[in-house]
Every structure is written in structure tokens, then in C-alpha cells.
Write a sequence for this structure.
């Protein structure tokens, strides 16, 4: 019997059952992979519109069996994609509410978001298992984000030249100017013979205040996670007092929980409406020294409260000397979906509006304190 061509087997997995006349039927592990993919993507309602036939007969796989199969059959990157699609695209909540499944899955950011969205459905036994996912992902994110925070607060670039060559301190514009003489127009290349670097100086830090105001509506789950961990990384830094405030239609001051981001995230209630005006009004009330304060409002700007009051409060904060940030996302991807009309109104009132990674926020805070 001739062994199946691996290349054709891969095409069969991509194109589905209708391609078997050209690729041949899947065999062995390829057949198991096809069954695992069909179990998940066979749920896609768009397949019927494209006249794609589902596999023959109902699947006998349970969620636990499916997870066991994909961990055996696919590489890590594919497993993470399949688990993400199961939770976010097809809302297979057993992935985060079934004790047997929770014991099997590998903690990752997608599952953490799913846990935060569904923990109200969990009994105490399942909640205890879900905490394992929260703790593992928080530990990993904290380890990564803490490096960015430490780097931001160890020193700022000065304009003084430095003989110490460090990629992060490369003076890009100075290097270009110093080496223009080596530009080769026929090759359209600039040869660098004398790279220039700037020095870093340790800063004297006066007391500053950072108020993170976080929208906990369902679409902001990633930003809530990164806000909690960023606040924990900033907590206790000399010269910086950090507050964390969460809001939907109510406002909750979580500053007392900042040092334990796992416990904090387990208390967050995702979903509901948004009253950004009320939350920013509360943030304004806790500002001690306006000229040494940063208020970072992390939201998608879809306001259910009083937009005019929100704009007026932001304008008052800016006029008294407070730096106001309006962040449509605070996560590693910083790809926001937000109400651009309200965001523009806040920008016109003096707020800095955009999206940031946690490292960029730490750098912004550090540079204002320097």
C-alpha cells in the first residue's frame, strides 16, 4: 500500500472533503486532525452559504476529547489558535466552565479573558480551577511587563553624547547627520561609520500621582487585564502613587487590591453599560496636586452617560495642569475599536488620545516625572 503524500494530506485538511478526488482521503493522524478541525469549524454557519459539505455523521467527540486530541496532533501555535476560536468565535464555554477541561488546558491570555467573562457562571470548584489560569497568565505577563517598567524608570535619555554603545540609546537623527558624507547616491545607500549614542541620567523623582481609570465593559477585557498588571508593576515605585479605578455604570476604587492582581481580576465584573463621565469625575476628586498628576482613562469611548459633562471635566483637569490620557486600548497589540467622535472631542479639550502598550504607558509616565 502506497503511503499518502504529506503535501496532499495537508491540502486535504485545508480544502476539506470535496478535495478528496484530487488529494485522496486522509489517513492516520491526518484523519484525526480532520476530525478535530471538523468538530470545531463544522459549526461555522458560513459554510452552508459556500456549499461546503460537513463531515458524514454526528461527531462523538466531547470538548475534553477534542482538547486531548488537538494537544496530541497539533503544534503549540495551532493549539492556541484553536482554543481561541473555540472560546471567542464559537463560544464553547465548556472550555472554561468544565472542571475536567480546565484541568487539561494550557493557561494563555485568551483563556484568561474567557475566565473573566464567564466566572459568574462557575461554581466554587470550577472557580478554584479557573484561578489557576488567572494566576499563571498574570505571572507570565507580570514578568514581561515588569522589564518594560524597570527599563522606563532606570533613567532617561539626555542630549549628552555617550561612548557607551547600547542599541536602546542610539541617537538616530544624530547618526544620520554625522554620516551624510558617506551617502552613495548611485547605490541609494548611507554607510554608517560613526554611530552616535546618547547617555542616560538617573532622575530625581518628585511625588507624582497616576490614576488609571479602566472601563470594565466586556469588549475591554484585554485592557482590564493589562491595566491591573501595569498598576501592580508600578505599585511601590519611589515618587509615584498609583490608583486603579474600574467602572461600568458604577465606579469602584480598586487601589487597595493593586498589589495582588490575581485577586483583583477575580473581583472584576465584565459587562454592563459605561458612565465614563462619572468615572472621570471620581478620578478628578482624588487628584492631590494637579500639576503632578496623570489621569489615564482606558475605554472604548462608547459613552452611556453625559458626554458634555465628560468633556467639561477633562477640560477642567487639563486647565489645572493635569495630564489626561484617553487610551482606546492598553494591551500588547494596541489595536483599538472606539468611538472616534467622542475621542476627538476629548482631544480637542486637551487630552492625549490614542492607544498604548503597557510599556509605552510606563515610558510616558517616567518621562513626565523626569
Amino acid at each position: 500500500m502506497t503511503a499518502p503524500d504529506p503535501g496532499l494530506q495537508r491540502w486535504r485538511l485545508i480544502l476539506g472533503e470535496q478535495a478528496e478526488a484530487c488529494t485522496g482521503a486522509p489517513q492516520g493522524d491526518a484523519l484525526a486532525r480532520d476530525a478535530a478541525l471538523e468538530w470545531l469549524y463544522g459549526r461555522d454557519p458560513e459554510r452552508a452559504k459556500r456549499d461546503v459539505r460537513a463531515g458524514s455523521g454526528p461527531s462523538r467527540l466531547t470538548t475534553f476529547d477534542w482538547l486531548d486530541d488537538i494537544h496530541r496532533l497539533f503544534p503549540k501555535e495551532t493549539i492556541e489558535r484553536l482554543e481561541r476560536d473555540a472560546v471567542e468565535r464559537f463560544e464553547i464555554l465548556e472550555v472554561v466552565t468544565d472542571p475536567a477541561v480546565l484541568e487539561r488546558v494550557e493557561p494563555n491570555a485568551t483563556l484568561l479573558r474567557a475566565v473573566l467573562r464567564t466566572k459568574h457562571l462557575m461554581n466554587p470548584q470550577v472557580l478554584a480551577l479557573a484561578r489557576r489560569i488567572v494566576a499563571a497568565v498574570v505571572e507570565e505577563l507580570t514578568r514581561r511587563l515588569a522589564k518594560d517598567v524597570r527599563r522606563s524608570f532606570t533613567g532617561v535619555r539626555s542630549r549628552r553624547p555617550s561612548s557607551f554603545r547600547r542599541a536602546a540609546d542610539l541617537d538616530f537623527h544624530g547618526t544620520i547627520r554625522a554620516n551624510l558624507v558617506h551617502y552613495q547616491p548611485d547605490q541609494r545607500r548611507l554607510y554608517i561609520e560613526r554611530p552616535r549614542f546618547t547617555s542616560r541620567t538617573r532622575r530625581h523623582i518628585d511625588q507624582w500621582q497616576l490614576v488609571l481609570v479602566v472601563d470594565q465593559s466586556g469588549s475591554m477585557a484585554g485592557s482590564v487585564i493589562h491595566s491591573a498588571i501595569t498598576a501592580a508593576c508600578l505599585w511601590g515605585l519611589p515618587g509615584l502613587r498609583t490608583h486603579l479605578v474600574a467602572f461600568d455604570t458604577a465606579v469602584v476604587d480598586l487601589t487597595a487590591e493593586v498589589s495582588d492582581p490575581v485577586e483583583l481580576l477575580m473581583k472584576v465584573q465584565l459587562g454592563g453599560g459605561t458612565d465614563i463621565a462619572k468615572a472621570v469625575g471620581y478620578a478628578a476628586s482624588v487628584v492631590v496636586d494637579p500639576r503632578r498628576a496623570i489621569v489615564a482613562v482606558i475605554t472604548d469611548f462608547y459613552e452611556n452617560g453625559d458626554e458634555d459633562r465628560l468633556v467639561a471635566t477633562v477640560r477642567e483637569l487639563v486647565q489645572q495642569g493635569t495630564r489626561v490620557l484617553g487610551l482606546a486600548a492598553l494591551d500588547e497589540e494596541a489595536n483599538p475599536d472606539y468611538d472616534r467622535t467622542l475621542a476627538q472631542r476629548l482631544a480637542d479639550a486637551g487630552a492625549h488620545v490614542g492607544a498604548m502598550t503597557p510599556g509605552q504607558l510606563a515610558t510616558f509616565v517616567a518621562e513626565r516625572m523626569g
